[in-house]
Design goal:
heterodimer, A: 543 residues, alpha/beta, Rossmann fold, 7-stranded mixed sheet, 23 strands, globular, disordered C terminus, B: 359 residues, mainly alpha, two-stranded antiparallel sheet, 13 helices
Chain lengths: 543, 359
């Protein structure tokens, strides 16, 4: 059985290892991996000691994922070797990796949506015979590490944040000696992040080596003792994050100087352009979050952030604003430039000058196996007059896409390339650019820089700031508080389908936002007694 | 060991090669089957695939058979692109024949040149009406259109049978279950002297061009591709799926109805209990063989038409049962679907020892 409780097994691991002495937990020597037309890893070498928290830094496409896949046995290196506890090893499959004690929390979750949490965990274990015993262990780990999850919920009903918790729990169940985490904090509140860090530090103290992949550099600085920086498939340097600044590490990653987003002069806000009043809507999804009495007003020139832990109604809010919901909101509950649009579909809302960028790029914001030209046409054909008499106007359609590609520096082979062939950051730049170039009066954007590299993220942030400076009302739904602090003028927090009152960014501390994310509305005085009886993701920090 | 390995990108080459591969495999397996039936496989394949078209009359017959297949398949492909699975084209074809043919019977002594255009319209309306029923059931009650459209096929064919056995039976027809012959004004003009190639063949070419324009150049074609490829993106921009269900079922039904009308006012010239050797079903294969692309469908239609001609000839000269036609069509569809796996996966021979172990 590969199953053992975490506390006892990591204890064992801790007993026979002393930090810095003896062989490395894992040493990567000269690993090279080529794909057709791309050298993903080029002679990469570094080592991780037992009990060390080691950051792997690099932009998207720097080769981090490939390297992780090689360590986890998903891919085989063309050249080079892996040394595990002093001995060269072949890690032929994830099965082998798990048996050796390597755990991985993927960035893209490898979960079966139609199965339950417990079944998914069982599938990832090398050998499970007793589901009841496993359930007990799962509940124990959840309790120990503060990762609440109902083992019998089906995965498709869970939010992104909750899904990640499954991945973490199932790794912790497996007696890891090396735990790899790929962008683990994107979906957590600051308090949850701190709690995760405590967990990771404890694991490290017990001797578990941790390979931590993140683009959030202040987190790396707070957590990691060493960092290896990749760029273009090569190791370009190593550092001690504690002695670096976030800016210096970011510059090492992208290989050039970084400029902070230019917020311009303090802006005057214009009239209210997007108004939501007392919007309540049942979720279309079975286990979705119903919206309860949402109120907000975004003025021209203002960027308002919607903070919150994943699954607290942000997706429902986005769909309600974009007009995607089956059910209609109450009349007058949503207004664009003073005009009630609650009964309008997406096309009529867009005609009034609202544009939208959903969280999911592939299949929601863009059609992966259509060309960029066609994807430009997708949302812009009316506003940009790309069609005439029911036919697609080929020339303006192509030049619109070319314009997006040029203006937003989208790296691609051209407007004929399929959207699915672009990297996440480039596709996001294309989608954001597509909406911005339509010169919207209102832009609602969800997770603008999710899974996007630092260079693309700063370009997107700058574009949003520039757009607001021209008088557009921008609503940014984001789980990334850094992002909200970087670009927003004001912030509201969603928890359990309710929304806090808007607060100017300057007046609100990260702790307060964290508490609001946990569902504590009492702070503002409009008491909604938090219902603490049910186990629910995102409730932390109430104590 | 042979393994299937996912490709990083869909292979464009395989999209076009897989029909060719499927046809080759069908020939090989077909040859083997002929051998088991005690025929020389080369002779049999020659009889089946070459002999029917080694003279100009044979080629003209190929066009006659391909006409309904192509017209129907273009309509079906629109639906398949939007994930609307209308497999009841045979029934829509039958209703088109009943509506349009009924008009010809009602005006059986007419000489008006308006009769033919009116029959076109009614034929299309009849098919569209039969397509509207699954559309209504799907959009109102979420009933699966695969089942409803298929079941309605049997209703339509039995309805036709009822009409020609009863109310529409030819009073001068010695009690045969057939309608009156259509008046000359209700018969499609022949466009090549000495053959049976009728106006419908020209319409089929027009349908291919119009279908191509609709699919790749029009906003509505764009909408149905988006609805099919990324339903969530379609919802995001307000392309309504229900509207696409209506559009594709009405269009597919109308085209099938038109094809049915062409059969009864062209090669057949009257209503009979059976007016189609399964064109509505074969058109499904044609649509996929043509990669759901109107121009591809033109070629797919010709190939499938050949299996009909070959089957007839094999019956006459080799004494093979008519089921051979259906067998060939089935084998072709089977291999087509199997070869399509290769657009997403590649075959790897041999194995890296390390990869042999799986979790």
């Amino acid at each position: 059985m590969g199953v053992a409780t975490v506390t006892s097994t990591t204890g064992e691991a801790g007993a026979n290892t002393v930090k810095g002495a003896g062989p490395a937990q894992l040493e990567v020597r000269g690993v090279t991996k080529a794909f057709p037309g791309c050298l993903a890893n080029d002679d990469i070498s570094f080592r991780i000691e037992p009990g060390e928290i080691h950051a792997l830094l690099g932009e998207n496409g720097a080769g981090k994922s490939t390297l992780v896949k090689i360590i986890y046995g998903v891919l085989q290196a063309d050249e080079g070797e892996l040394i595990w506890e002093g001995k060269p090893v072949t890690i032929a499959s994830p099965h082998d990796a798990r048996e050796m004690g390597i755990g991985l929390v993927f960035q893209h979750f490898s979960l079966f949506e139609t199965m339950t949490v417990l079944e998914n965990i069982a599938l990832a274990m090398n050998d499970v015979r007793d589901m009841d015993a496993l359930r007990k262990q799962v509940l124990e780990v959840e309790k120990t590490y503060g990762l609440p999850l109902d083992p019998d919920r089906h995965v498709y009903t869970l939010s992104v944040g909750e899904r990640q918790r499954i991945e973490i729990v199932r790794c912790l169940l497996q007696n890891p000696k090396l735990l790899i985490l790929d962008e683990p904090t994107s979906v957590l509140t600051p308090q949850e992040v701190e709690k995760l860090f405590e967990t990771l530090r404890r694991l490290a103290d017990e001797g578990c080596a941790i390979l931590y992949i993140s683009h959030k550099l202040h987190e790396v600085k707070a957590l990691c003792q060493k960092a290896t920086v990749l760029r273009g498939g090569k190791v370009v340097g190593g550092c001690d994050p504690r002695e670096e600044t976030a800016k210096s590490m970011a510059e090492m990653m992208i290989g050039q100087k970084l400029t902070a987003p230019d917020r311009g002069k303090s802006r005057e806000f214009g009239d209210v352009r997007l108004a939501v009043s007392n919007l309540s809507l049942e979720s279309d999804e079975q286990f979705g979050t119903d919206l309860k009495g949402i109120n907000l007003e975004v003025r021209g020139g203002e960027i308002m952030g919607v903070a919150g832990v994943a699954g607290n109604g942000q997706n429902e809010l986005f769909r309600a604003l974009a007009g995607e919901t089956e059910q209609q909101a109450a009349p007058d509950s949503i207004k664009i430039d003073g005009k009630s649009v609650a009964h309008f579909g997406p096309r009529r809302r867009r005609r009034l000058g609202a544009t939208f960028v959903p969280e999911e790029r592939n299949g929601h914001g863009a059609v992966p196996d259509m060309s960029l030209s066609e994807n430009g046409f997708l949302t812009a054909f009316r506003r940009m007059a790309l069609s005439a008499r029911g036919l697609i106007r080929e020339v303006p359609t192509k030049s619109f896409a070319d314009n997006i590609i040029k203006t937003f520096d989208v790296r691609t082979t051209g407007s004929g390339a399929e959207a699915g062939s672009l990297s996440g950051g480039n596709l996001q730049k294309f989608i954001v650019g597509r909406e911005i170039l339509q010169d919207p009066g209102v832009l609602v954007i969800s997770q603008p820089t999710w899974g996007v590299d630092a260079g693309a993220a700063s370009a997107i942030h700058q574009a949003l700031l520039d757009l607001a400076a021209k008088g557009t009302a921008v609503l940014v739904i984001s789980q990334d508080l850094d992002e909200i602090y970087a670009i927003c003028d004001s912030v509201v927090v969603m928890a359990e389908g309710k929304m806090s009152k808007p607060r100017p960014m300057a007046d609100v501390s990260i702790e307060e936002i964290g508490l609001l994310m946990g569902g504590l509305h009492d702070l503002e005085g409009n008491a909604t007694p938090a219902n603490n009886t049910q186990v629910e993701g995102g409730r932390v920090g109430q104590a | 060991m042979v393994r299937l390995e996912p490709r990083r990108q869909h292979s464009q080459a395989m999209v076009y090669l897989s029909p060719v591969l499927a046809i080759l495999m069908t020939l090989v397996v077909g040859g083997i089957i002929f051998a088991f039936m005690g025929k020389n496989p080369f002779d049999a394949l020659y009889t089946f695939f070459i002999l029917p078209i080694n003279n100009s009359y044979g080629i003209s017959e190929l066009f006659v058979k391909a006409t309904p297949l192509v017209i129907i398949a273009v309509g079906l492909a629109m639906g398949f692109r939007a994930n609307v699975w209308n497999i009841g084209a045979e029934g829509q074809l039958t209703m088109g024949a009943i509506f349009g043919g009924g008009l010809a019977l009602y005006f059986h002594d007419s000489e008006s040149i308006l009769l033919m255009p009116a029959m076109f319209v009614l034929g299309a309306l009849g098919g569209a009406f039969w397509g509207a029923i699954p559309a209504l059931l799907r959009t109102k009650f979420n009933a699966n259109e695969i089942l409803t459209s298929l079941m309605l096929t049997y209703v339509a064919t039995l309805f036709l049978s009822f009409l020609v056995h009863g109310p529409w039976r030819n009073p001068e027809g010695f009690n045969f279950p057939e309608s009156r012959p259509f008046p000359d004004a209700g018969l499609l003009p022949i466009i090549f002297e000495g053959s049976r190639v009728h106006l419908g063949t020209a319409v089929a070419v027009f349908v291919v061009i119009a279908g191509w324009l609709l699919l790749s150049k029009s906003v509505i074609g764009f909408q149905l591709r988006v609805v099919g490829k990324a339903p969530q993106a379609a919802r995001h921009v307000g392309f309504r799926q229900k509207r696409m269900v209506w559009f594709t079922l009405l269009l597919g039904g109308a085209l099938a109805g038109l094809a049915g009308l062409f059969e009864v006012s062209g090669p057949i010239g009257q209503l009979q209990p059976s007016i189609s050797p399964g064109y509505g079903f074969t058109a499904i294969i044609v649509a996929f063989l043509g990669r759901l692309h109107p121009v591809g469908i033109l070629f797919g239609g010709l190939i499938m038409a050949l299996t009909y001609l070959g089957g007839e000839l094999a019956q006459i000269t080799l004494g093979l049962p008519n089921a051979v036609t259906g067998l060939f069509q089935g084998i072709l569809l089977f291999f087509l679907l199997a070869s399509d796996v290769l657009t997403k996966y590649r075959i790897r021979f041999g194995s890296i020892a390390a990869k042999g172990r799986t979790a």
